Amino acid sequence: MTVHLYAHRLSQPSRAAEILLRELDMPYAWHTVDFANGETRTDTFAAQINPLQTIPALVVRDTTANAAPFALGESHAILRYLCRTARNRDLAAQWYPSDDAERCAPVDLWMAWHHNHVRAYDMFHDIMNLHFTLPMLKYELQSTALKPLQDGLRAGLATLEHHLGHQKNPSSGAAATLCGGEQPTLADLVIACELYQIAAVGYRFDGFPQLARWLEAMANRRHFRDVSQEIDAQGQTIREQSGAYLDLAGAFS
Ligand SMILES: N[C@@H](CCC(=O)N[C@@H](CS)C(=O)NCC(=O)O)C(=O)O
Q: What angle do CA 91, 97, 103 make, to 5 degrees?
């Protein structure tokens, strides 16, 4: 049985899936999908990998049996599937306590919340567009394109800050986690991957100290760090070439 991950390191939900595979110590075959150039929109991809035409996508192939491969799209479904099938049950239960309805419910809650309140305000592409394709309109677009997204995300950041401030700190002295446990869960993972995307280009969260500490703790996990190297490099390039025209560091101070 081989798990194949179709993904890209510059895609937030792709990184969440890859980080989890590593955290759960699950072997996997990696396939880079050039989503920016339409590879997910090809007939082959839709027919064989993911009819929803997005990454990440997971395909589990059993080479010993004649069974059709099991294919799955949507990062949240993939993350839950990995936790449900991982050999190391204790480790999987830390990320997604599926046998404990009360502990699992807040993980599901924050995962559901993530798509509408954090992912919806993805600013990375607008920053890239500002920088690469519309150099003469940078200042104007900062206010028309980025400001509404920043304002939308700020409300979500405030919710997270308030929530984290009311979570008990783990006995280890580490940063609080979203669902109150000693270890992060899938909820922490999906939201951290999303926010890290804009941290990579220089956004800081100084006005949200609990959130900043929580994100730093997530970003310092070994697998998170390793899988984030490409987004770090991409973010740095954009940051260096953008000069000071974008107020990234001060936007959430
Ligand atoms: N809700 C989906 C979102 C996936 C998504 O937006 N993936 C982007 C890359 S970050 C993609 O595949 N885009 C290709 C396209 O839209 O053609 C998930 O969580 O998996």
A: 135
Instruction: Centre a 10 Å sphere on the Cβ of residue 40 and count the other Cβ atoms it contains.
Output: 21
Question: Which CATH number, 1.10.260.40, 3.40.30.10, 2.40.30.20, 3.90.1140.10, labels domain 2-95?
Answer: 3.40.30.10
Q: Which of 54, 58, 123 to mutate to test the pocket of ligand 1 (most atoms within 8 A of CB)?
A: 54
Residues 150-175 have pLDDT tens digits of 999 999 999 999 999 999 887 777 88
Atom number of ligand 1 nearest to Cα 33: 12
- 30 — pLDDT class (breaks 50, 70, 90): very high
- CATH number, domain 101-242, options 3.40.50.620, 3.30.450.80, 1.10.287.70, 1.20.1050.10: 1.20.1050.10
**pLDDT over 60 (residue 136):** no
| Peptide bond before residue 56 is cis, with ω within 30 degrees of 0 | yes
Atom 1 (ligand 1): residue with closest C-alpha? Answer: 74
